[in-house]
From TrEMBL:
This is Taurine dioxygenase. GO terms for molecular function: metal ion binding; taurine dioxygenase activity. Belongs to the TfdA dioxygenase family. One of its GO terms (biological process) is sulfur compound metabolic process. It comes from Telmatospirillum siberiense. Keywords: Dioxygenase, Iron, Metal-binding, Oxidoreductase. Residues 29-293 form the TauD/TfdA-like domain. InterPro entries: AtsK-like, TauD-like_sf, TauD/TfdA-like. One of its GO terms (cellular component) is cytoplasm. Signal peptide: none annotated.
């Protein structure tokens, strides 16, 4: 079994790296690993960017799934203004409960502070953001406003195109056509202990297990342990077994992962459909603060 998994990884990665990656005109792109992640330079995100620059940033995101910009001292409003170049901003169900740097909560910014008294930190598991929405987040943009003084607090990413392509052919065929339930209460109530407002419930949606990306046309795996609770077409025991297998496949797939190291005034963007991420909590008892702005997709996931 290990041989076939490794062989499939090799074939999938060769195909991924064999894709055409022509030169950029308005930005510089340095890949962080062969399979996911890039650092973007040669651009000032505080300025009014041209359509050509935005198009090349979008292309870099499509090709690398997670991209980080260094030395970008943005305000929260500049952060949001840049995010709006990619679409309509998402309003998180928990944003109203957060206070950011002493000011009132902003429904378009999900802020958090992790420190010595924190019971958990946001994102401390493999996941994609808010997949419980009927039309989930397409892109997330994150700034850290306080970094742990001793380092740590990396964000790990996993390429879900490769997570799917590295599965065996029979398993890929089996998963195609299946759908799964994504439940907000799985992440926010069971995970964080948060409760919805009286008379309301957290969103729940049914999405394909394998999704085709609306821009690239490639298929990727679309289940994650933070939100996905069951595969609709299977019995509970079958669903649990298959989901556990897929979650472990993503977790153990080091060949299609990378870790992004933070520095002051960095801005990190990721494709929230075709990647998963994990905020590494290795800095206790030091503090790490952040603000996330996200962009809605234009359509629900489809295969």
């Amino acid at each position: 079994m290990s041989f076939y998994r490794d062989f499939n990884d090799k074939i999938a990665i060769e195909a991924w790296n064999g894709q055409d990656r022509s030169a950029y005109e308005t930005i510089a792109v340095k890949r962080l690993s062969p399979t996911i992640g890039a650092e973007i330079s040669g651009i000032d995100l505080s300025r009014d960017l041209s359509e050509r620059q935005i198009a090349e940033i979008q292309r870099a995101l499509d090709e690398n799934l997670a991209i980080i910009f260094r030395d970008q001292p943005l305000t929260s409003e500049q952060h949001k203004a840049f995010a709006r170049r990619f679409g309509t901003l998402h309003r998180h169900a928990l944003a109203a409960n957060t206070v950011i740097a002493g000011r009132s909560a902003d429904p378009e910014i999900l802020g958090w502070k992790t420190g010595a008294d924190s019971r958990y930190t946001a994102g401390d598991a493999w996941h994609a953001d808010v997949t419980c929405d009927p039309v989930p987040i397409a892109i997330s943009l994150l700034r850290l406003t306080r970094l742990p003084p001793s380092g740590g607090g990396d964000t790990a990413f996993s390429n879900q195109y490769l997570a799917f392509e590295s599965l065996s052919a029979p398993l890929k065929d089996f998963l195609s056509g299946l759908t799964a339930i994504h439940d907000g209460s799985q992440a926010w109530t069971a995970g964080y202990g948060a409760q919805p407002d009286p008379g309301k419930s957290y969103p729940q949606a049914e999405h394909p297990v394998v999704v085709r990306h609306p821009r690239t046309g490639q298929r990727f795996l679309y289940v994650n342990p933070a939100f996905t609770t069951r595969i609709v077409q299977l019995s509970r025991d079958e669903s649990d077994a298959i989901l556990t297998l897929l979650f472990r496949h993503v977790e153990k797939g080091l060949s299609f992962q990378t870790r992004v190291q933070w520095s002051e005034n960095s801005l990190l963007l990721w494709d929230n459909w075709a990647s998963q991420h994990h905020a590494v909590w290795d800095y206790f008892p030091e503090e790490r603060w952040g603000e996330r702005v996200s962009v809605l997709a234009k359509e629900p996931p489809r295969d």
